[in-house]
Each structure stands twice: as C-alpha cells, then as structure tokens.
Amino acid sequence: MKWPLYSRIPEEEADSSVILDRFLDFVRERELELYPAQEEAVLELYAGKNVILNTPTGSGKSLVATSLHFNSIATNKRSVYTCPIKALVNEKFLTLCRDFGPDQVGMITGDASVNPEAKILCCTAEILANQALRSGSKTDIQDVIVDEFHYYSDRDRGVAWQIPLLTLPQSRFLLMSATLGDTSFFQTELTRLNHRETALIQSFDRPVPLSYEYSETPLHETVQKLIEKDKFPVYQVCFSQRECAEEAQNLLSTDYCTRDEKSVLVKQLEGTQFTSPYGKEIQKLLKHGVGLHHAGLLPKYRILVERLAQQGLLKIICGTDTLGVGVNIPIRTVLLTKLCKYNGEKVSILTVRDFRQISGRAGRKGYDNEGFVVAQAPEHIIDNIRQEQKAAGDAKKLKKLVKRKPPEKGFVPWTEETFKKLVSGEPEALVSRFKVSHSMLLLMLSREDEDGCSALRQLIRDSHETPLAKKQHRRLAFQLFRSLVERKIIELNPLRVNVDLQEDFSLNHALSLYLLDTLKLLDPEHPEYALDVLTLVESILENPDLILRKQLDRIKTEKMYEMKLEGIEYDERIAELEKLEYPKPRREFIYSTFNEFSALHPWVGNENIRPKSVAREIYENCHTFAEYIREYQLHRIEGILLRYISDVYKVLVQTVPETAKNDELNAITLYMGAILKQVDSSLLEEWERIRNPASSISNATADTKAPALPSLEDITRDQKAFTILVRNETFRFLKALSAKKYEVALEILIPQDLTQEKSWTPKSLEAALTPYYTDHLMISIDAAARNPKNLTITKDFERQEWQLHLVLVDPDGHNDWAVQLSLKLDRSREELRPRMELTEIAPI
Q1: Are 496 and 458 in contact (CB under 8 A)?
Q2: Packing angle, helices 570-577 and 545-565, rounded to 10
Q3: For residues 766, 768, 773 and 777, what is the CA-based torsion angle, rounded to 10 degrees?
Q4: Would you call 136 helix, strand, or coil by DSSP?
Q5: b/e burial code for range 796-829 (CB count within 10 A of at least 16 → b)
Q6: For residue 565, how many other CB atoms are within 10 A of its CB?
Q7: Alpha helices (H) along 269-361
Q8: Which run of H or of E encompasses 819?
Q9: Which of 110, 295, 760, 765 satisfies CB 3.0 to 4.6 Å to 742 for a cystine?
Q10: How many CB atoms lie under 10 A from the CB of residue 40?
Q11: Can you give the C-alpha Rg of the chain in angstroms?
C-alpha cells in the first residue's frame, strides 16, 4: 500500500523548493486551498525559520504541522508532534499513520508506546520534556511541533511546555494555538535558543464565522430548538463528569434521531464490545444519537464517540471542556451550560482563553457556513423568568411569586454582559510555570558525557522566571540533590545515577523518596509485606476522590445501621459518622514516618502523604475491574479507576527497587498490569488495523519490514507470580461458592458449551454441594482457608494444563471435601488471567 504523503518524498536529496512543490501537489489533490496564514506559515517553515502560528480553531493549523513533518522526513530529519492530552496524541498518531505509513510514525503517551524510534513521533508534552531533560542538545529531534501551546500557563503542567524551549538548541519550533495573547517574549526566546529567525503568523479570520446567542430558556428547550433549526451536532459543555452523565441521561427522554438514523447507528455499533459495567449505558446513549465524552470514561468509549461524531452520526455530545482541546470532532453548535467552572482552586468565571478554546470548536469547514455558540443563563434566573411569564398580567400571582435563589456552593453568577465580555475579550498573558523536581534532577544527571549539574544550573538560569524565583529554584535544587545523594540514588566521585537502579527507574511523584526510605522499614518476612508495599505506593499518589468518597459512604451506611440496632440517638450517630474515614491501612505507621521524613527534608513543603486502599482492596479481595466498579457503583467514572490502577502499576514497575520485590509483590504488579490490558487495548488494536487492513490484532501477518506490534505480556512467564494469581482466582471461586452465588462462581470459570452432557449450571453446582451442606455448616473463606497448603497444584507443561486440588475448609476442621479444577495455560495467556474449568466437587 502507498501512503499518500510518504510516497511523494523525493528518492534522492532535493532542495526545499522541490519538497515544497511535492507537498503542495498533495494539497491540491486533496482539493484543499491554503488560507493566507497557512501559506505564509508553510513558506516560513520551508525557509528554515521558527514559526509561532496564532490562528483561530478550525483554520488549518494541523495542515501546517503536516507540512513540517513532510519537510523533516524528506530531509532525513526527525520531527515530533506534542500536545497536552492523550486523546489528541492518539488521533494525530493515527492520522499521520494514514498519511505517512505506520512504519514511519511512532507514539509515546506514558500509557502506550508504539514504534518509539520512528522518524515522526507523537507524544504528550511531558514525554518530550523528559527526553529533552535527559539528552538536551543530543536529543535526536530536529523539528518540534507544539500544539495547544497556551498550556504553557497551566498551573500543574506548564513546565513541560517550557523545558523544550530551554534545552533543544538543535531543534526548530512550530508553536501553535488559537489563544496566545502577546507572543513577543517567545519570539525573542526561540531565536536566542537556536539562532533561527522566528516568524509570527497571526490571523483572526475564521474560515467559518461564529454567531453568539445568550439563552434564557430551559436547557431541554434550547437543545430541542437547536435540533429543530438544523444546528447540530451540538456539543453540550458541562464542567463536571457528573453533570455530563446526568444531562446525557436526560436527553434520552426525547427522540432526536429518526428511525433510519438509529438503524445506521445500530449497524455502526455492530461488533463493538461494551463489556465494562458502564458499557450498556454508553451503548444505549449512542443508539439514541447522544455521545458522552469526559475523562471518567474508558479511552475506548471516548475514541468510539469521536469516531461516530466524525461520521456525523451523533446529534448531541455531552462533554467536559476537554473535548475542546484540539480533538477533531466536527461540531456545528457549542452550547455552554454554565460560564463558571472550578479552576483547581475555586469556582470562577471562565477565562477568555478557556472560552475561546471551547467556543472555537463550533463551525465545521466544508460542512457549515456558520458556527453557533450558545450560552445558557443561570438555571435559577431561567426558572424565575419562566415563573414571571406564567404570572404575567396577574398582580396577585406576581406579588406572591417566590423567586428561586442561586446555589450557595460551586457557583459564581454571570449575566449576558459577562458573556459579551468573553466574546470580545483578549486572551490573558501566558505565565511561566517552571519548577524543579526530583525527576528533573535524575534525568539531567543521567546525561552521558556531560556535566549534569552545570546543565541544571544553566536550565534554571535560562528559565522564564524572575531573578527572585530563579534563586528559590536553585536553593530547592540543592536540597533535592542532597536528598538523592543521601539515599545513594546519586553517587559522587564520579557523579552519576546509581547504576544498580532498574533501567526505567523514575521518581515522577513528589514523594517518591519517602517511598524509597520507608520501604526499608518494612519487614520482608512479614506475611503482609507485599500488601504494605502496595499501601506505601498508594500513599504517594493523588487521591481518586470520587472513589474514596464511595468507600466512605459504604462505611458510614454500615456504621449507621449498626448504631441504629444498638439504639444510639440520632445526633450521637451523626457525630460518630463525622469521625469515620475511608480505609487507610497502616495509617499510624505512614503518618509517623512521613512526619519524620518531612522534618528532615524542608523541600517537601506543602506536599502531604495520602494513605488509602483502592488497589490493595482490589487485590486482597481478588476483584476484577468490573467487580470493583459494581461493588462501589463507579460506573460513570470507570476511566478514573483505570487511570489510578495505571499510576499504581507504573510506580510498582519504575520506582519500587528490584531489591524490595518478592514473589507476592511481583504477582500484585502482574495483577495490576493484566487489569490494564484486559480493560482497554483499543489503541494497539487500531494501530494494527492500520498496519494490516485485512487482519485483526489476533491473526495479523505483519509485513516483515514493519516493526512488531508491542506484544501483550505472557502472564504465565513468571511462574511464582502466576501461581499467586492462580491462588487468588481459586479464592474468588471459593468466595462465590461460600456465598452460594453459583452463577457468579461459573462466570469466573471458562464459559462452557451448555449442549455438552457434563456442563455445569447453577443448579448442578448447587446439587453437587447439597451433600456437603448435609454434614457441614459452611465453606470457610477466612485466613485459614486461604492457606497455600489447601491448594495443591500439579503442573503439566506438555499438555499446557495445571491440575488444581482445592480443599474446602469447614469451621469444624473436617476438611474432607475438595474442588478439582483444570487450569488452561494457553487460554490464560490469551486472556491475561488464570482461566480454569471445573472438573469435580466431591469428598476426598
């Protein structure tokens, strides 16, 4: 197959004019016409200059970026495209694969790495920043495209946008955003860095003009009016995941699609697996023509919504403002349900930059002559207007009218005047967010054949900070350096990072050093050592607040019921509930060791330790991802749980030293990794489809010249760790038997062919255990029942089967019954978890 852009690259070395002609031929064949700003930007890039491209959303910045990729690969250079969110990285990666061929394009997001040495690399800003810190001027990247450059001002992540501008003098830059404000500082800094002229290409002309409306009708009426006036697809913007889900659910009460349109949707969804607990709800919404898009969803569902929207099949998409960050979803109308949002510190009116980024999604080039931006008035104002309209002309009703008050929390009032100011305002100035961290030190001190300390001092000197701030950064850097030396993570004479650390060792979390210090205080011989390590790992991670809130709600509900039975008075019950916390294993140990640690290390500052038990609870109770979602009713935030498990897994792999790991901890790591791969592998599957259009991920026969698809880990390779997973899976089965949940027990096993004579059903399982309950009170699932001696494993590698003999422990200690199971190794590798068949339940 010929990839349209890659096939146009001159076979022999050519000058920039020839390369430019080839690219312009491609543009003409696509029946595209460059806007003046696009044409100017492309010419400046092909003249070897840096370019700052400040043009509205939808004005073709992506095509300019593609022109630079083409120029770079045609001149045997390496280019990188970077942006703030993984969804956009994924989208650009797949688009560039289609243009240049998958062999030429790679991707790194932190969650996935595909063909990372390719000539064109797509990655998040943090990935590029880390590469720049590690290799500096030796980084093999000659052209850098930074999309959504306004993230330079992001409070938490902005440093990642600044680092390449300080450390890559060998690179030429294309900075792109619709909302930059004054760019003179960056023009000067880029030229200072790489001694290339920097051109500012700026335009305020939108290919598709926008019209603005302030709506004082109820939200459902506004949506209905937009649909009736053919102003869809509508991007209904909510500023919390909960609001998104609730508003999407509300839309099910009205039909927005015709029968034929719904039939097309049903056909498009054929073959899509909605296997997670929230999957059925997503499926129902999509069949109704309604999309849902926010960070709480699994990535595969967000990708599906984007694909259906790109095909024009969805009438409405309820999404948070992240949908407006560059993801290529065609939208005709942006409907803002509010003009205020929580900014990480407090609820405030949208900034002009945020408003422009969100509203800029309206209007589709090639589809629309006009885009529409509609802002809802506050809900209580709309309600009061409606009441006044109903009471109009009736003096008595107007006098008795009780106006609805605004919300007391999470709300800042706005008016139509606020809306007009956002429409006409100028984006705020970009602000430097430079900061020093352990991770930065490790990366810079790992540089080969270079004085990392001098490079770090230079980095701070060059940073876009005030003289006073630079002085504070130098002081902090010294404190961090000393803490790394004290732990022998950094060695002196010669200065180097400890060579005994694992190859991908990282300190990406502010309290990673606390973890390393405190691991040494645990007893490796203690039976709960591995679980305590997991708890320490969880304690340095950000809290998944919505999940912890669910844990606490359950504890409070159970405690309230218990106190009611004891006859405790209501006020006293409420007072007791206020004292409760979500589970915090080793609470006192963690707080006391952290207090000692922070007293010795002033750089800890406002960082705090956060003991919790999410991953530990999943592992201890042998929960699958779906079981844990159902356990706490986390359906709407599946993506948050998946991302949290991903963070735990990365720390287990990259930060916990190999010397601190035992078989049980390896099994925990394997367990978390398997959950990630089982729940969502959509991106790897999509990449494989592009590489081999006629094949699937399971039966692909790749071109021998293509890089191999990153293989899913052989879960059976580490036999000790896999054996622990097998014990956990048999315990899950035992728990279901003990609770007499026979359907659940059978779901844990390999699905059977029910036409076979010896197939197990809930009834036959119950019948098999009836004689057991004649002589025994129950099946125990306490610590004694989990003792490894109760499970005998006979391994037959020739037949790729293990035979499991599980003793049923009873309270009286007879232990005279057993379950026989057959573990299928091939099936286990395929499904990334132990897979078993039930053979027999009988007396020993």
Answers
A1: no
A2: 150
A3: -80
A4: helix
A5: eeeeebbebbbbbbbeeeebebbbebbbbbebbb
A6: 8
A7: 279-287, 299-310, 352-359
A8: strand 817-824
A9: 765
A10: 18
A11: 30
Q: Give the predicted TM-score (pTM) of the model.
A: 0.80
Quote the strand ranges of 224-382, DSSP E: 234-237, 290-293, 316-319, 333-336, 340-342, 347-349, 371-376
Report the helix count and the strand count for the chain, using DSSP H and E: 34, 22
Residues ≥6 apart with Cβ < 8 Å to 579: none
DSSP state letter for 603? G
Give the helix, strand, coil percentages of the chain, each rounded to 5: 50, 15, 40
- Mean pLDDT, the chain cut into blocks of 10 residues (844 residues total): 83 89 93 93 97 92 96 96 85 90 89 85 94 95 97 94 98 96 95 98 92 96 95 94 93 93 94 90 96 89 88 93 66 96 90 92 86 97 90 77 87 96 93 93 88 95 97 94 87 76 64 91 95 97 95 95 92 93 96 91 79 96 91 93 91 91 91 84 57 44 32 72 89 93 92 73 93 92 82 92 94 92 93 91 94
Residue 86 CA to residue 299 CA, distance in Å, equals: 9
Q: Do 52 and 200 touch, CB atoms closer than 8 A?
A: yes
- Could you report the per-residue pLDDT of 133-168, keeping only the tens digit for each? 999 999 999 999 999 999 999 988 999 999 999 999
Tokens of 5: 């852009």
Q: How is 741-804 classified by DSSP, letter by letter?
A: -HHHHHHHSPP--TTSTT---HHHHHHHHHHHHHH-S----STTTT-GGGEEEEEETTTTEEEE
To which residue do tokens 């803490």 refer?
483
List Cβ neighbours of 843 (8 Å cut-off, separation of 6 or more).
771, 816, 817, 818
Q: Which residue has the tokens 């790394």?
A: 484
Backbone phi and psi for residue 373, each to the nearest 5 degrees, phi listed first: -120, 120
SS3 637: helix
How many whole angstroms separate alpha carbon 653 and alpha carbon 656? 7
Q: Say if residues 816 and 843 touch (Cβ distance below 8 Å).
A: yes
pLDDT tens-digit series, residues 443-473 = 899 888 889 999 999 999 999 999 999 999 9
CA distance 827 to 833: 8
Q: In 3D, which of 76, 52, 73, 75 has the Cα closest to residue 64?
A: 52
Nearest to 6 by CA among 709, 711, 705, 708: 705
Residue 670 burial class via C-beta count within 10 angstroms: exposed 0-12, middle 13-18, buried 19 and up: buried
| DSSP, residue by residue, 27-52 | HHHTT----HHHHHHHHHHHTT-EEE
The full length of the chain comes to: 844
